[in-house]
Amino acid sequence: MIKFNNVFKRYSGAKDILQNVSFEIHSGELVFVTGSSGAGKSTLLKLISAIEKPSSGDIIFENQNLSDLRGVDMPYLRRKFGMIFQDHKLLFDRNCFENVALPLAINDTTSIDISRRVRAALNKVGLLEKEKLMPITLSGGEQQRLAIARAIVSRPAILIADEPTANLDKKYADEIMNIFYSFQQVGVTVIISSHEAPKSPIRFKEFHLIHGELIKPQDVSLLS
Amino acid sequence: MFHYFHNHIQAFLRAVIRIKSNWPSSIIMILVIGITLCLPATGFLLVENASQLSSKIEYEAEISIFLDQTISQDQINFIGSALKQTSSIEKVNFEPKIRAWEKLQEKLKINSLDAGISENPLPDAFFVTLNTLDNNIVESLHKDIKNLEGVKEVIIDSGWIKKLRSILYLIKVGLLILGTLLAMVLIVVIGNTIRLQTLTYQNEIEVSRLIGATDSFIQRPFIYTGIFYGLGGSLVTGGLLTVILELFNRVAFKFESILGGLIMLTNLPPSKYIFITIFAMALGLLASYFSASRSIKTI
Q1: CATH assignment of the domain containing A210
Q2: Which of B7, B204, B212 lies nearest to residue A91, judging by beta carbons?
């Protein structure tokens, strides 16, 4: 589904953020990208979701080399991903319902469908009763769940989350992780960056990064 | 097709929400456009009224018909009755050459013997006043009179009107240039406002782009905002013109007795107001399109 072949990423005037990264992610897998701060986790996720382009190497998504993709096709590619950002990137001048509805509005969904699907997504993350509230009134954990609702509302094949539990206490973090696990269980490919891999009740793959280099990908067993 | 219209309705509503949420700056922008467009529009209003006034003056224009020196009295009578029977002629005044010569002598204070002129050099002449404004009728009349036997020269005495019309035409050209310059100023002002708005909505633009919005999707509400500004500005222009007209006419009414007649300005026809509205909306569209597309690319 997603394949990295000898990918390098550097910004002008800086050393390589990612060095010679190669791996493959199959459909329906749960993947943790782990490493300390500055290891290149966020950059790796940005490359997967085509927010950034590699300095060299190939990124293949569904048999399409992303380097060959034209700028005008990029928005249509991004619609295949559900993105959850470290800072949530919620719109604070819109209520919860409108925030979640944004990807559907972009995707030409009809008003009736938008209403139905937004409520289903909010229900999934336990925020249905707060659909009319503004995001500023939500707690950190609720804001993260709202961001998850926005990511899943267009039913993407791949969910990408950049440190989704970084600023949450254990209770909220467990709740958020359980939501991700439930999506993986129904066939969604889930890629999560985190400082360390959690003790997961399900099998996952871990990509550990040290100073931009990928330590050999490894399968991690249940509650390892 | 449904999605296309649905997208536009969404963008339209988003623009309305943005204008509503930034209403103070939106009102200022609309006033700026309205007042700026009002300047050339008022100029056109005055020129249009002056043009109408010049058309009315032409109503009293004369045609001078000079006859041959050798013309017989019968021929003079025939021409006189022919002129009187012409429907487009209001008044016919015949001036015999003897009377014209006397008038000239009186004016120059000479007599024929002193001047060494043995005979009257002036011709008999008709001076007719027309009752039509139609140039085609005037031209056709000029041609018909010229073809009459015994007529030597026909002069349409409206040269000064032509001069007035030329001046009015030049003023119109000047106003057109002024209008073009002000339109360019408006494009810059609207464009800058839209650019500032894109910065205000930077977060929304970033998020929209990250979740797969195309540039045209992001751009659309800004374009509608520009069109709204143009529409609002044209309504302000219309309102201001009406107020200016009303004030002028009230003042003119007070001065009727002093001026010896009522000089009333008439409003521009609806077609001109439609033109101003379409023009202002087109300016808003152009400015917002170029500004938003350029600004969005840098975010």
Answers
A1: 3.40.50.300
A2: B204
**Does residue A8 fall inside a structural domain?**
no
> For the structural domain made of B62-157, what CATH number should be given?
3.30.70.3040
Minimum CA–CA partner of A91 in chain B: B204
- Across the A:B interface, residue pairs with CB atoms under 8 Å apart total 44
Amino acid identity, position A82: G
- Answer whether B212 sits within 8 Å of A102, measured CB to CB: no
| Contacts of residue A157, Cβ cutoff 8 Å, sequence gap at least 6 | A27, A80, A188, A189
Please give the residue range of the domain that contains residue A193. Answer: 27-53+74-220
Q: Which of A72, A106, A108 comes nearest B211 by C-beta?
A: A106
Q: Where are the domains of chain B?
A: 2-57+163-298, 62-157
pLDDT band at A165 (very low <50, low <70, confident <90, very high): confident
ipTM: 0.85
Q: Which residues of B touch A87 (CB under 8 A)?
A: none
Q: Please tell me the total number of residues recorded for chain A in this structure.
A: 224
Prediction pTM value: 0.73
A10 has pLDDT over 60: yes
Say if A39 falls within a structural domain. Answer: yes
* Number of domains chain A contains: 1
